[in-house]
Amino acid sequence: MISRAHRFHGYNALKYVYGHGQTVRGQLLATKYIVNRRRSSYRAAVVVSRKVHKSAVVRSRIRRRIYEIIRTNAEHITGPYDIVILVFSENVATLESSKLRETVLEQLERADVITDGHAIVNTKEQSA
Q1: Number of structural domains the chain divides into
Q2: What is the rounded CA–CA span in Å between residue 77 and residue 21?
Q3: To 10 degrees, the CA torsion angle through 87, 93, 96, 99?
Q4: Residue 13: pLDDT band by 50, 70, 90 thresholds?
Q5: What's the pLDDT tens digit per position in 22-73?
Q6: Beta bridge partner(s), residue 81
Q7: Longest dimension (CA), the chain
Q8: Separation of alpha carbons 35 and 17, rounded Å
Q9: Kindly report the CA angle at 6 between 114 and 71, in degrees rounded to 5?
Q10: CATH number, position 113
Q11: Cα gap 123→128, rounded to integer Å
């Protein structure tokens, strides 16, 4: 789990990202992001709808897996971004860890949230 300093607090913060943020969309999930000049570090949220899976246990597991990917690659996040990852495919629950990590990091890199390409390279080297 990411630290409390890197989490969103309150509905209005997410509402601002939804309304004003840019989106990078993939097959399994989407990433909304915006630069927040009032903060010194990033904030992240993972949203998994009940439409993805009815079980709260499975939805929480998906959230924890994605938060862990963000936490382990936090040093590669370049600025004070507000990041919201929206999961809209039930296949994320059964996706193997390396594929999920690659998907999330690829989207963050496409969004220029992670500019250091070493995050994805290091992940591939670790699994080999």
Answers
A1: 1
A2: 17
A3: -10
A4: confident
A5: 999 999 999 999 998 888 899 999 999 999 999 999 999 999 999 999 999 9
A6: 35
A7: 42
A8: 9
A9: 55
A10: 3.30.230.10
A11: 9
- Using the structure block, give the residue that is written with the tokens 């507000």: 82
The one-letter amino acid at 49? S
Give 24's strand partners: 31
Q: How far is CA 44 from CA 12, 32, 54, 125, 128, in A?
A: 14, 10, 23, 26, 29
Helices (H), the chain: 11-20, 56-72, 97-110, 118-127
Question: Within a 10 A sphere around the Cβ of 71, how many other Cβ atoms?
Answer: 13
pLDDT of residue 90: 92
Contact between 106 and 50 under an 8 Å Cβ cutoff? The reply is: no
Res. 82 pLDDT band, cuts 50 70 90: very high
Are 71 and 1 contacting, i.e. CB atoms less than 8 angstroms apart?
yes
Long-range contacts of 54-58 (CB under 8 A, 24+ apart): 58/93
Q: Which domain holds residue 11?
A: 4-127
Question: What is the distance between the alpha carbons of residues 63 and 69, in angstroms, rounded to a whole number?
Answer: 10
